[in-house]
Amino acid sequence: MINTPEFQGTHLWDRLCWAKENLDGVQSDYRVVYEDSVDECAKILVPDPNWMACALQGGILPPVQVYWELAKDEAKPDFKKHTRGYLLHNTEPVEAMTEEQAIEYLIMKDCPQHVWREWDSGNKPKLVICRKEQLPATREWRNAWKISEDLATDETVAA
Amino acid sequence: MALGKIKADTLEHSTAGSLDTQFVVNGSAKAWHNAASNGASVNDSFNMSGYTDTGTGNGAHSFTNNMGNANYATMSKILMNSGATTAHRTIYTSTQATANYSEETFYLNAAAELVAEDRQRLSVAHGDLA
Prior knowledge:
The complex is a heterodimer of chains A (159) and B (130).
Chain A: H1 12-22, E1 30-34, E2 43-47, H2 49-57, H3 64-75, H4 86-90, H5 99-110, H6 113-117, E3 127-131
Antiparallel strand pairs in A: 1-2, 1-3
Chain B: E1 10-13, E2 17-20, H1 21-27, E3 29-35, E4 42-46, E5 48-55, E6 58-63, E7 73-79, E8 89-96, E9 100-108, E10 114-116, E11 120-126
Antiparallel strand pairs in B: 1-2, 3-4, 3-11, 5-6, 6-9, 7-11, 8-9, 9-10
């Protein structure tokens, strides 16, 4: 396995260039199904293979909290552009993750916070991690897909 | 392993003049993405962390390195490699933030109605990085 250069302080985009050149993409079988609105169908988050390679390699991606800070900035009414982009580049990168840890990181990065922070607050989970094969085989009724009412929030629904 | 690095502020041609490398950096695509038509997988990409299938013909791309502001430009196409018809098709960006952007894909049916459609997506983002 190739060693990751010391990347703290290197622009994240430059790190991704290095990763693209040196790491093979990793297609994960995990999918994250979530509902962020009762009026909309379930959404399915697909991990990017090049991003997953970075997560498994370690030393490339910033801590997920950095993205939360940038999201806070963007949510301000007077936001025009990011002035704290340095957080992406200067914060110590996270170490190598397992695929499962990477999925958890990705949920906290790319799913709405109100979904994953309160995923078990209702009658059924708002979010489920599953395998690709567990999704419906056809997309004929894609806009009607919902997380099953049979799932309970007090048990592990995917292993 | 050490990173190879060439630092230059200017590229100069022997006769055709010179170019500030900032133009090269600023003019490069900052992210690109090729997603399967059913939204079930990402074929390849750069600077993307994930693709969210949000319904028939709909999807969202998330950046690993956020854009610096929401005024970046995206260019997207659909791949018509199978089941192609002469119907007019369109793909447009529906929302745009520094962390992600969403797209919707439609075709025009015989009744001149827009119908959401799943197609393989090819998408590029240009702009300033955070």
